[in-house]
């Protein structure tokens, strides 16, 4: 998935950690991401949270997309800040899932995001065939 994720890579995101039902991504706020108030534009914070959500809901190798996402901005972030988005699975049943993402900077909560996912069938990585002994 990362190989084809040109949007996240173009924004300088990096994968910190991924496991079954969770993912952590990070990004540093650049000049191009600061709005007219001199703070990080909310759209970039949302995009980081959305990317962490995407990796968390695809972490079990089921093709999954976002059905809905909502963010609440708690505090502003500034130029040069390193933002860390930690996503975790809250519930997964059938083809639907709910994930919470907390975006922090130096341990301070910047935003809280909740995403709803929908599995669309198939896998990201083809299943491997058992190898003969």
Automatic annotation (TrEMBL):
Gene3D superfamilies in the cross-refs: Hotdog Thioesterase
InterPro entries according to UniProt: Acyl-CoA_thioesterase_PaaI, HotDog_dom_sf, PaaD, PAAI_dom, Thioestr_dom
Record keyword Hydrolase present: yes
GO molecular function: hydrolase activity
EC numbers: 3.1.2.-
Keyword Hydrolase: yes
Keywords: Hydrolase
Domain of life: Bacteria
Domain (Thioesterase) ranges: 37-108
Top enzyme category: hydrolase
Protein name: Hydroxyphenylacetyl-CoA thioesterase PaaI
Annotated organism of origin: Rhodopseudomonas telluris
Gene that this polypeptide is encoded by: paaI
């Amino acid at each position: 998935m990362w190989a084809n994720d040109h949007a996240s890579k173009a924004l300088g995101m990096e994968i910190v950690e991924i496991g079954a039902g969770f993912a952590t991504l990070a990004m540093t706020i650049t000049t191009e991401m600061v709005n007219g108030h001199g703070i990080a534009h909310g759209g970039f914070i949302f995009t980081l949270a959305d990317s962490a959500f995407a990796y968390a809901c695809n972490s079990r190798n089921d093709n999954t997309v976002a059905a809905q996402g909502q963010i609440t901005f708690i505090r502003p972030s500034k130029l040069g800040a390193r933002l860390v988005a930690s996503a975790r699975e809250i519930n997964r049943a059938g083809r639907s899932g709910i994930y919470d993402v907390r975006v922090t900077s130096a341990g301070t909560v910047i935003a809280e995001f909740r995403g709803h996912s929908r599995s669309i069938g198939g896998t990201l990585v083809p299943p491997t065939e058992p190898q003969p002994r």
